[in-house]
Amino acid sequence: MSEEQEEICRKVRSMTRSLIKKGAEPSDVSFALSLIATELGLEVTDGSISVFPVVMSGITHAVANAVEESADSSEADEGGVPAGAILH
Question: How far apart are CA 24 and CA 5, in angstroms?
Fold first, then answer.
């Protein structure tokens, strides 16, 4: 991710946490974020479907981060044993 993307993500995460703290449902916030991302892409591309790979790229990046964090957490919980290792 570029530095600009990281800065934008920090700002959006902060806004998202604020909405949740104020009582918004996480599913409603997720819906709104994906809707707005798609609307923005369609607007700047004059309705081109080329927006979908960009939106999907964000989803793919988020999933990869979650998988990595989960694997790191599992390794820490198991005393540093790599995921998939057979313990005897």
Answer: 25
The domain locations on the chain are 3-74
Distances from the Cα of 40 to the Cα of 5, 10, 17, 64, 67, angstroms: 15, 19, 22, 24, 28
**Is residue 24 within 8 Å of residue 14, measured between CB atoms?**
no
- For 1-32, the pLDDT digits (tens) are 889 999 999 999 999 999 999 999 999 999 99
Residue type, position 37, single letter: A
| Phi-psi map region of 79: left, alpha, beta (phi>0 left; psi -120 to 50 alpha) | left
CA dist 50 and 47 (Å) reads 8
